[in-house]
Fold this protein.
Amino acid sequence: MIIIMKPGASEEAVQKVSDLIRSRGLQAHLSKGAEVTIVGVVGDKTRLQGSNIEISEGVDKIVNVTESYKLVNKKFHPEDSVITAGTASIGPGTLTVMAGPCAIESHDQLLQCAYAVKKAGATFLRGGAYKPRTSPYSFQGLEEEGLKYMKEAREATGLNVICEVTSLRALETAVKYVDMIQIGARNMQNFELLKEAGRSGVPVMLKRGLAATIDEWLNAAEYIISEGNPNIVLCERGIRTYETATRNTLDISAVPVIRAKSHLPLIVDPSHATGVRAYIEPLSKAAIAAGADGLMIEVHPCPACALSDGPQSLTFEQFDDLMAHIRPYAELAGRS
Amino acid sequence: MIIIMKPGASEEAVQKVSDLIRSRGLQAHLSKGAEVTIVGVVGDKTRLQGSNIEISEGVDKIVNVTESYKLVNKKFHPEDSVITAGTASIGPGTLTVMAGPCAIESHDQLLQCAYAVKKAGATFLRGGAYKPRTSPYSFQGLEEEGLKYMKEAREATGLNVICEVTSLRALETAVKYVDMIQIGARNMQNFELLKEAGRSGVPVMLKRGLAATIDEWLNAAEYIISEGNPNIVLCERGIRTYETATRNTLDISAVPVIRAKSHLPLIVDPSHATGVRAYIEPLSKAAIAAGADGLMIEVHPCPACALSDGPQSLTFEQFDDLMAHIRPYAELAGRS
Amino acid sequence: MIIIMKPGASEEAVQKVSDLIRSRGLQAHLSKGAEVTIVGVVGDKTRLQGSNIEISEGVDKIVNVTESYKLVNKKFHPEDSVITAGTASIGPGTLTVMAGPCAIESHDQLLQCAYAVKKAGATFLRGGAYKPRTSPYSFQGLEEEGLKYMKEAREATGLNVICEVTSLRALETAVKYVDMIQIGARNMQNFELLKEAGRSGVPVMLKRGLAATIDEWLNAAEYIISEGNPNIVLCERGIRTYETATRNTLDISAVPVIRAKSHLPLIVDPSHATGVRAYIEPLSKAAIAAGADGLMIEVHPCPACALSDGPQSLTFEQFDDLMAHIRPYAELAGRS
Amino acid sequence: MIIIMKPGASEEAVQKVSDLIRSRGLQAHLSKGAEVTIVGVVGDKTRLQGSNIEISEGVDKIVNVTESYKLVNKKFHPEDSVITAGTASIGPGTLTVMAGPCAIESHDQLLQCAYAVKKAGATFLRGGAYKPRTSPYSFQGLEEEGLKYMKEAREATGLNVICEVTSLRALETAVKYVDMIQIGARNMQNFELLKEAGRSGVPVMLKRGLAATIDEWLNAAEYIISEGNPNIVLCERGIRTYETATRNTLDISAVPVIRAKSHLPLIVDPSHATGVRAYIEPLSKAAIAAGADGLMIEVHPCPACALSDGPQSLTFEQFDDLMAHIRPYAELAGRS
């Protein structure tokens, strides 16, 4: 941590800042420049929590030198992690494809999806039982009933299953039925949910918040891992920008950035990122080429009848084609 | 709702869309232009839910003509609402000032704040008992103990008290102690919490999400009101943009926009919007001048010792000054 | 400037960085922390231009401690500037109102506007002779003919006149006719134009770019002042964000931020910021309350007939009302 | 174009709007709904320019049904264009790689680059002779001298050459020396420059503005093509968002979106998009996989000595590696 003093800050002010730092058992290094004086803090900066140095007299600003996330940080864990969920390994060398309907609507709809995506080569069945919807007048999900269908689909097909949880109560129920839980974009900073997911030990897919920076995202993952659960997969699903040609803006750079900053696996969700069926295939290829460990894709037996996100869902036939077209990109990237 | 067909869409495709609309008991009006055909839908568009018309053959896009929020919509409730919480009325003609520490840290800290803000003219004491923090290694709040101090502060000073709730469990506990609950920016789309807040009937202050559009914000309020709770106050607290000179960008235009679109009262939080003490006074004046019904301000007996958000907290003296300086602006705006 | 080394950077790498700094006649101060080493650079950092220290071996990142703009920086010029343009003084204690049509459409339209805004109390007539338009099929401006009408309007009414310039050629022509030139949002980083405006010595109003940070904006002003022209007024006109309820998002915080970082006067343009007539009055009041030195407002004798930006233009009557309603706010802010 | 009336708009207001539409030789189709009336406009909407219907009494909002760009629109030119510049064809089936230094610094630097990128397989040499720089105190370019070196490099290597122009004067000069001119992000809406580029007939690479929507970008291209110059290549180079881990956010979705909306070729510039060397290779692969027609890459003989953008420039060796690693992706995408 570095403290930059204002031009003309008094000797006394600099002394007071240095004293504060030393009073917490840390060292303070001064650099007096022509315009400004800089104070470098050496030692464990968490000891300065609550010191509010930024409002000490004469202080201009504080610059953090090290990241606040530790356990998910690649600097302290240079090897890329491989996460196990159900029968699947997620990480380097593999391409994980999670596919299924946005919302679980009925037993038949889900089972049809399961057989179809299994046949096309997916390794996970996805499906929403608890649906966070912008308007209260939209379909809100089948809840536990949906989870039972998920379990049945797993037994029928051998697919691993993943489901979003939107509350502590949903989490408690879901862990009885699924191989992996998803914490969605809207809950990325629902810290109670993150902590409980951490305590549960169940593999978690953590989606990036709609307006979350990569640093905030990694701090959210730190909430989970700091409760003792290292089984985390990140999922980039588009961020909010001024551009309206797509529902969100897929931040493809997040793939190499996460690769550089964290050891956690990362998958990409082009369905939610764009909201447009025709853009899913080119962006799936792009995600694999950029180094993603997998994809999450919405599939529906009849997109035109879907209760949620129909327009971005692929038909079974379109999903078959997608899987066939991305395979050579996965091979090129050394994934199978 | 309007359906815009692609150039060259076949007669058959147009017919199919019209049939779909009529099959749901609605009327379809065709306008055939030189380039494109447009289909207007007349009737209650919720009947088209799940029809996914946008992926019918030949459809280019859908344009919504009416808003999806109804009960908070000014079109159907033209008179501005006045909300009662504790002993306070919030709305036209009044200026509500909610002030207090970001986090409740101790009995003494909270009581000191209560006496100080009361003396300066605030009508609500704010204070966080459940703190959503970006890093898991930061102070997380006193929880129920903090709520007890809030209640005590109310009894001692006659101030109304407001506290953020971050989960169903926190909501259940908080309603026993406070006059108004706050749903924070990170939970604006925590729909279970919104619905439960709606069922509780307790007055709610709903902060705008960090990346929420005004439409999404009003839809979130619709979740609360549609459960039978009309006691909602909106709070603008800054949105995320590319500008980094302030922590967030205060969207001052939200004040007249909300005034035009909804009958709910709106207050402004310049403390969280900027994160910088020196900007709070000019932006407080601006908020009042733009037509806000009140302010939410962070105050701390010793900002340099605060466990949370110290740098944006005002001292008691600074808060006294602020209140004195904004008073003439409130009078000019016809508020007292 | 501070150089932050990667964890585990070798002694040699640190030495190499220090040597590079010293080779340019600067001092290097080392702080060795538990995790990382920091190198503080003391002296004039422009000597490091082209050194690309950030890609030296072992370097993690560079943190700039001082701003790259100097002459517009309040740190080196603490007193707020007052700019003279025509007969007007712009700065502390005054409220400058620039009003007129978006585009000059005809002799009569402009003269009518001039008389109307003069009568209502404006001090400047604005009007576009060169129109930057998103589509090539829209009205593009009267060019020099329009400037002649501006000059005539000035003579007829005594108003000062301001006109946007969009190229070197337009600049050359405009300086013959107007008291102040405007560099618009789209040209904020048209550096040739900025430099030429600097050399011209003519007072310049510099609008903030649609996606410009406050730092970039002040650097753009530095281009003008570094050519010897200190007669610069800044104009906040909204930035691009994800919110679509207004055309742009008025960054009201820019008012106190600019006040803190620069000595240049600042005016606010609520017409372009929102694009909606009904929001202009509340935002005008907010701008004054936040500390702006003036306003720029679009006015048209017949908004419904305007060739450009009609929907955001006020009628003469509406402008009269606006001037009457903002006056008490200006008085409260100590401006006349 | 569709006009949506306010709820409760009078019959008279609707009549007035219809009359206005018909007075311009267009047809008006009414749809009266339960809540609102909609007026569809049939015919060439440019006839309504300057009618400002949006502020007619009773009008709520206007919805445009067709795009304002025509000549670059895929709807009216469904086949993808192939652009010829120098000896190169840019478009389907080819992968164009433009490489070279950010700024031309000297004869030797440029010639070294030319030989190196030619050897590695690039088809264009890029190099800036006119540099738009945020700070006036940074290196500003060699101007015409630099262009002469470009011409010499072309003759020496057979590479095609491309150079950015930042003003009408620069454009006039550049066309004498280069095969293709670049209009940079900061000038995407410098409409005089666009029109002059259109009149010149020279092939143009048009970069997307930092905060430009895809629609605005296509409208900017329409300025060039509407002056008779169809030789346009678009270049995605990142947009401004709140994320700071990369310099800008590469909008990879722009690739399929442009493919769907326009027939113009599109290349991607990962160097400017990220500002970080390590992210260039993964994003180059992603761009090709998404369907881009080419790449623009910064290369420098000694990035550590570069006067501009050193940290994002590749060494010759790194560029060799990049070219080798992207080749199989190009082949997979059917490009050579």
About this structure: The first strand of chain D starts at residue 2 and ends at 5.
